[in-house]
Amino acid sequence: METQKLTDYERKRLENIRRNDEMVAALKLQAMATQLSASTKRQSNRAATKSYKTSPQKKPKIETPIVMRRSLRTRGMPPEAKGLDDDLVESVAKIHKPLTPAKPGASRVWGPLNMEEAYTGSGSDRELIETLVGIGKNSGVDTSVGVEFGSVKVCKDEISGNLVKREGNDGGSCLKLSSLTLNPENIARVMPGRIMAVRFLPCNNSRMIVAGNKLGNIVFWNLDSKGEGEDGIYLYHPHPGPISGISVHQHCLSKIFTSCYEGVIRLMDAEKEVFDLVYSCEDTIFSLSQQPNNANCLYFCEGYGGLSIFDRRTGNCPTKWSLHDARINTIDFNPGNPNIMATSSTDGTACIWDLRSINADKPKALKTVSHKRAIHSAYFSPYGRSLATTSYDDNVGITSGVNFEETSMIHHYNQTGRWISTFRAIWGWDESYVFIGNMKRGVDIISPVQRRSVFTLHSPHMSAIPCRFDAHPYNVGMLAGATSGGQVYVWTLLQGS
Fold first, then answer.
1. Pick from 280, 256, 274: nearest CA to 119
2. Which residues, listed in sequence order, are joined to residue 340 by a DSSP beta bridge?
3. What is the rounded distance in angstroms from the CA atom of residue 121 to the CA atom of residue 144?
4. DSSP code at position 9
5. CB 407 within 8 A of CB 399
6. How far is residue 29 CA from its own chain's centroid?
7. What are the E-state strand segments in 205-260?
8. Could you tell me the end-to-end alpha-carbon distance of the chain, in angstroms, rounded to an integer?
9. How far apart are CA 134 and CA 152, in angstroms?
10. Between the chain's N and C termini, which has fewer beta carbons within 10 Å?
11. Would you say 478 and 469 are in contact if contact means Cβ atoms under 8 Å apart?
């Protein structure tokens, strides 16, 4: 009855099943599978027994160390709101650790370093030492030296030694921008690695450059070197980390202060032939400066937003202020009034302060210039009447006026990327022009009056992008530009200009 109810498809399916069963039974496949499975188990047991007998001891387990990541909050450090602009510099500072790890709660100990031990250049540095000692003995003596600047005479003030304009029209400059030239003999790769700071010795009868790089090296380049077979380049390695500041005081030229991100400040004393230890701390030192009328006090950024004053006469820091919410990138003093100080910060502000009236608990700035992103520099003009700020928001700010009440933003592309030092616009020899590098291997010259770039220095001899600059305070038209490849370019005026 049930068979009769099956459909044709079901009957065909049952027939196929029956036929397949008969074929499997005829080939005895089930029995062979059972035998093969049993044989495989026996071989596996014998192999396991053999392996156990030949290697009765277990191999030691290699443990991978666990790297603990700690945030700024867990390390007791305030967050940096706009620190992404400085991620490269921050990473460089963290890579260069101290040579000897400090114990928790203990201060790191750094000692004096003999110049001979720190010297890594070729040949002898005797000529450099003798030159610096000779310059140092004459520093601060010739205070009435004037520099002819077209029809305008620029002189050193007899009291403070600052450059001031004595006569002529305040509104313009007689410098011919087209007369600035770059000669091959004024180009040199003075050191390996990225140059972080470059300075001229403020001496009217010397053309010497001091520069520092991210490897902790300090180099001197004497463009007037007369030694036979000498290139005038002297390289030292006095610091364990990137150089964050170089300060050469105009009245003490044989003593040069340098700082690094590892929290160390050293004094290179050519007379004693030593890189002496001046100050060390656990925090990072991001910038360094001195008042033009005070060679005994050092102003430096210690940690995030803090500014400290170190007095060499007492050997301590009697004053510490918290001025910004993030690192202070530059510290500069007004040439007309050394009590007026400007700071630039990664928090997006540049502030002007009066040192005579800063409240230690709640410091209040005389003027605050705001940018949309980190500010990498803020420098006063040679006469102290204007302030130039350079920001990662692609603007160069010019703040001027009797009380610095007027601020104008001049567009300039400032995106240097991860492998090039940030641009920092500097003033020339008067208040007519500001100089800043560009990404096309040139130097843009900005006119604050016209609020635009009016000229660009180009040269076929330039193979890299100049980032950090300094203008010789006594040699008008002499401009030094340093690159991230260790080169230094020095522009000068054409003969007869």
1. 274
2. 354
3. 37
4. H
5. yes
6. 79
7. 208-213, 218-222, 233-236, 243-248, 255-260
8. 124
9. 31
10. N
11. no
Pick left, alpha or beta for residue 387 (phi over 0 → left; psi -120 to 50 → alpha; otherwise beta): beta
pLDDT in tens, 396-454: 999 999 999 999 999 999 999 888 999 999 999 999 999 999 999 999 999 999 999 99
DSSP 460: T
| Tokens 């062979």 found at | 32
Q: Is 129 helix (H, G, I), strand (E, B) or coil?
A: helix
Burial of 348 by CB count in 10 Å (0-12 exposed, 13-18 middle, 19+ buried)? buried
C-alpha span between 52 and 37 (Å, rounded): 23
Amino acid identity at 442: G
pLDDT at residue 192, rounded to an integer: 94
Give the whole-angstrom CA distance, residue 9 versus residue 6: 8
3-state secondary structure of 56: coil
Residues 295/161, Cβ–Cβ less than 8 Å? no
User: CA-based angle 296:351:391, to the nearest 5?
Assistant: 110
Of 351, 496, 428, give the one whose Cα is nearest residue 163.
428
CA dist 10 and 3 (Å) reads 10
Compute the distance between CA of residue 420 and CA of residue 418 in angstroms, rounded to an integer: 6
- Confidence tier at 362 by pLDDT (50, 70, 90): confident
Reported residue count of the chain is 497
Q: Which residue ranges form the domains of the chain, and what is each CATH number?
A: 109-168+187-322 (2.130.10.10), 335-458 (2.130.10.10)
pTM of the model: 0.74
Q: SS3 helix, strand, coil % of the chain, rounded to 5?
A: 15, 35, 45
Residues 6+ apart with CB under 8 A from 433: 173, 175, 177, 427, 445, 446, 447, 448, 454
Q: Give, as one character, the DSSP assignment of residue 287.
A: E
Instruction: Name residue, tokens 């803090």.
Output: 306
Instruction: Name the β-bridge partners of 267.
Output: 257, 276
The tokens for 159 are 């009291």
- The whole-angstrom distance between residue 339's C-alpha and the CA centroid of its chain comes to 27
Number of neighbouring beta carbons within 10 Å of residue 459: 17
Residues 6+ apart with CB under 8 A from 90: 83
DSSP string covering 249-277, please? -TT-TTEEEEEETTTEEEEEETTTTEEEE
